[in-house]
Structure formats: structure tokens, C-alpha cells
Amino acid sequence: MAAKLDTIIVPFAMVGADDAYDIAADRSDILSSPIGPPVRGLYESLNLNPATDVSPMTVLPGTSLPSLIPLPSRLERVYFYFGTPIDFKELPPSAIKVHGAACSGGGHRPPPGIEGD
Asked: In this structure, what is the dihedral angle of CA atoms 27, 31, 32, 34, given to the nearest 10 degrees?
């Protein structure tokens, strides 16, 4: 997707966030609910994959009310890491074409040479 949109990727990792959020509904809950079809339609109209791009819905801190904006329920330590930015302009077009499908589904290894630090 980054290559299609001519965007730079900044590798990012966060540890500890799963302890700070209370999840009201995960991706499968959302997509299998009555609002699932409109959510799928919206994501598909934006050229996004609902099976991988729908984010979970969290709970507003101190309540049981759902929140579309993920707000932490507890103050926990959260650690961030930002890797070296990857500019697809520096890769040959053949690398993007060959590996583009393999990298678009999530959970796949990036092409050789762009694994970062």
C-alpha cells in the first residue's frame, strides 16, 4: 500500500499497550455484528481490507461505554520504538511488484533489504 501511495514507512513497535486498554469488541465481533456490512462497505470503498484493517473498539475509561477512539483505561508503562524510515522510491519497481502481494496481507516477512534495524 505504501508503494501505491508513494508513502514512506516508519517501522514502529509498542510494548505494553495490550495491558492499558479494555477491549469492548474486536475485529471479528465488529464484522459479525449488525454494523458489520456497513463497516465492510466503508472499508472496501476506501480500498482497505476489513479482515485486516478494522481496529478493535475500546471502552471509555471508568465506564462500560464503547469508544471509537482508543483511550487507555489504566496508566501502564508503554514502550515505543521507531525504526529507520523506508522510502519505496529507493527500491527498484521490480522489488515492489514481486513482493507487493506477499506484504499486503499482514503477518508476512518484508522483502529482503527492507527489514530495518
From this structure: 130
Count Cα neighbours of 58 within 13 Å in the Cβ-side half-sphere: 16
Q: Judging by beta carbons within 10 Å of its beta carbon (0-12, 13-18, 19+), is residue 41 exposed, middle or buried?
A: exposed
Confidence of residue 18 (pLDDT cuts 50, 70, 90): confident
- Compute the distance between CA of residue 23 and CA of residue 6 in angstroms, rounded to an integer: 33
DSSP line for 11-22: -EEEESHHHH--
Q: What is the largest CA-CA distance in the chain?
A: 51
Count of other CB atoms within 10 angstroms of residue 54: 21
